[in-house]
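From the methods appendix. Each design record in this collection lists the tokenized structure first, followed by the designed amino acid sequence. Records were kept in a plain field format so they could be parsed without special tools. The example shown here is representative of the layout used throughout.

RECORD:
FOLD TOKENS (341 positions):
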């Protein structure tokens, strides 16, 4: 008789930035299949998701991955349900309208690695600053590169867990890194980003580091951190029309506020019009323009407007479920318009 460790991961009720919570369930002779993961419960009064007198919330398993860091371990991403089985109001995943997985997402997750002793990004001296930005991006060598050990180990863990992990690179600021996840299906993409974040946060404990997802943790002339959302659907992948691409981009303009509301807390500190961002108060798009709200990749243009778009506004602390859900809603409105034209 074998026993497996199932690490249930869910999002709490803190607003506007939800946090990951997790706990371990031991199962005997577990098959490793999602359908054999039981629904579990937790104390919602301790996560701002219920009152003490009626505190039980349910955890519905929605994705499972092998846990490469634990013997007989599994990572179980779960949605939060009310006691009656309906989606909890904090459950952004359940609100995504992409049941046929037509939407594909590639998220670029930026973050800073922080030293728990100094509470500064790696490479930052106490009481001062490292050299200015310029030589850190995609650098090599101990003078400008900080944290490669944990970044490489995290990549290995994600790959071993079966995530569709696509790459890593050091970012523009000192101590800042990025990883990329691609998945077909918005819910699948969100699941994988959250599990990759979980693996990174847990790994950081061993290094006496912590991961900072705040979009502007270092004030001044330093890049902030985003979670750029590359997205496509059948329309964008096949239309072959600059006119339709312009129509999709323009559809984002009148709902700029609605997008910004779910693109991450403190994003106004990052979206200033500087450091490869558009101003939070403006909306723009352009080919190869990293200073625009939405970038039309040059590859998409070279393929005759068959490809994807990149929304550069989501912050590093944004919920990928909510980002994807909002993008899908906007693009689907264009699909209806194109279909009835």
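DESIGN:
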């Amino acid at each position: 008789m074998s026993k497996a460790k199932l690490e249930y991961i869910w999002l709490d009720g803190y607003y506007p930035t939800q946090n990951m919570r997790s706990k371990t369930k031991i199962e005997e002779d577990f098959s490793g299949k999602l359908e054999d993961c039981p629904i579990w419960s937790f104390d919602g009064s301790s996560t701002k998701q219920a009152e003490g007198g009626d505190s039980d919330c349910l955890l519905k398993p929605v994705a499972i991955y092998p846990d490469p860091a634990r013997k007989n371990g599994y990572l179980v991403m779960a949605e939060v349900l009310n006691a009656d089985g309906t989606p909890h109001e904090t459950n952004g995943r359940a609100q995504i309208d992409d049941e046929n997985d037509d939407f594909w997402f590639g998220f670029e997750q930026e973050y800073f690695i922080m030293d728990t002793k100094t509470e500064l990004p790696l490479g930052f001296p106490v009481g001062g600053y490292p050299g200015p930005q310029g030589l850190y991006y995609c650098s090599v060598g101990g003078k400008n590169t900080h944290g490669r050990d944990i970044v490489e180990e995290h990549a290995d863990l994600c790959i071993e867990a079966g995530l569709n992990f696509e790459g890593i690179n050091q970012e523009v600021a000192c101590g800042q890194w990025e990883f990329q996840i691609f998945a077909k299906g918005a819910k699948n993409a969100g699941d994988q980003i959250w599990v990759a974040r979980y693996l990174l946060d847990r790994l950081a404990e061993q290094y006496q580091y912590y991961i900072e997802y705040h979009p502007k943790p270092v004030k001044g002339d330093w890049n902030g951190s985003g979670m750029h959302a590359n997205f496509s659907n059948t329309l964008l992948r096949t239309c072959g029309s600059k006119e339709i691409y312009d129509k999709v981009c323009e559809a984002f303009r009148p709902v700029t506020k609605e997008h910004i509301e779910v693109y991450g807390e403190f994003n106004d500190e990052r979206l200033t019009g500087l450091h490869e961002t558009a101003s939070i108060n403006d909306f723009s798009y352009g080919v190869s323009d990293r200073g625009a709200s939405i970038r039309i990749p040059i590859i998409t243009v070279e393929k005759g407007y068959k490809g994807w778009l990149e929304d550069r506004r989501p912050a590093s602390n944004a919920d990928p479920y909510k980002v994807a859900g909002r993008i899908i809603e906007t693009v689907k409105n264009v699909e209806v318009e194109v279909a009835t034209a």
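APPENDIX NOTE: Residues 138 and 170 are 5 Å apart (CA to CA).
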